[in-house]
Write a structure and sequence with these properties.
By secondary structure, the chain is an alpha/beta fold. It has one domain (about 10-30, about 50-285): Rossmann fold. The protein has helices spanning about 60-65, 70-80, 100-105, 125-140, 140-145, 155-160, 190-200, 220-230, 275-285; strands at about 5, 25, 90, 115-120, 145-150, 165-175, 200-210, 240-245, 255-260. Bound molecules: S-adenosylmethionine (SAM).
Length: about 290
């Protein structure tokens, strides 16, 4: 059973689950033509349409390269680039609510002309309370209406998001709750199930954003699982890349998994092969309680 929290007031139990300074920018799928060249960025030669996941992101990328912007800020800029007012998005690890807040501001307007939907979840009550407080303090009442918070694991994304919803972005910010209990962390096996679920709900042209921390126990294992998953996504359906500081080995790594526009066909025999293999592996891991 999923618990959905209203943004303000008492917690309620919902019974209906359905409602309820060296840098590497590497592509994880072998698309040689999509290499990122930092020195040759000139806005005049960049494509002007929205086909490239990097279009319009020049300044934040350059600031990241020169250590002036964090991976989180790059992630937010990428979301902003793909999200349109009225969209549905998912925060798979709402934590202290900063990502949820950013998403609400991206999908909504205070005058309610573009509603949008933000589904946010976390397994910790403290995290949900922190998120609620931040949203209460920061949002217009109209905007608060579009957020639904769920006390659940992100492997349950498909139970949280209404069937048929067109989800533009699913964001994971892994690891532990800043300022909270550092022993409660995201786990590779449930993260993997969450990524699989995200890959099914996100629409063509949408993005799965994964911010991965490697400095805590278990972090490197999770990083490897995320990377393996991203590498296994079919190249004709996904563009997968990661941003990583090479001489700051504990800096968070940003993975961006962009679902190609209008070319994804689940009937293609090999399109989901990598996913199926990972799913099988993940179920085996869960059974063994690894
Ligand atoms: C780094 S924090 C997230 C930060 C947050 N996005 C923000 O903007 O403040 C990671 C969060 O993931 C949550 N978490 C751990 N395992 C989870 C799971 N299986 N499903 C959903 N959330 C989980 C933790 O409770 C923690 O709050």
């Amino acid at each position: 059973m999923l618990r959905c929290y209203p943004i303000s007031g008492m917690f309620h139990q919902k019974s209906t689950a359905r409602w309820s300074k060296s840098l590497s920018v590497s592509l994880l799928s072998p698309i040689s033509s999509t290499t990122f060249h930092s020195q040759s960025i000139k806005s005049s030669v960049l494509p002007t349409n929205r086909d490239s996941p990097l279009t319009g992101l020049e300044s934040v990328m350059v600031d990241y390269i020169f250590g002036k912007k964090k991976a989180t800020e790059v992630a937010h800029s990428v979301w902003k680039h793909v999200i349109q007012k009225g969209d549905t998005v998912v925060d798979a690890t709402c934590g202290n609510g900063h990502d949820t807040l950013a998403m609400v501001n991206m999908v909504s307007e205070t005058d309610k002309s573009h509603g949008g939907h933000v589904y946010a979840m976390d397994i910790q009550e403290t995290a949900l309370k922190n998120t609620m407080s931040l949203l209460d303090a920061s949002l217009h009442p109209n905007q608060k209406e579009i957020v639904k918070l769920f006390a659940t694991c992100h492997s349950e994304i498909e139970q949280v998001v209404p069937k048929g919803a067109t989800v533009r972005v699913v964001a994971f910010n892994l690891g532990y709750l800043p300022g909270g209990d550092k022993t409660v962390i995201t786990k590779p096996e449930t993260t993997l199930l969450g990524m699989m679920a995200a890959s099914r709900v996100v629409i063509s042209g949408g993005v799965i954003s994964m911010l991965v921390y490697v400095g805590h126990p278990g972090g490197m294992d999770e990083y490897e699982k995320v990377e393996t998953f991203a590498c296994g996504l079919a190249v004709d359906a996904w563009i997968c890349c990661k941003l990583q500081m090479l001489n700051r080995p504990l800096a968070p790594v940003l993975f961006l998994l962009c679902k190609r526009r209008d070319r994804f066909d689940t009937k293609r025999p090999n399109a989901d092969l990598g996913l199926q293999q990972l799913q099988y592996q993940s179920k085996k891991d869960l059974d063994k309680n690894i």
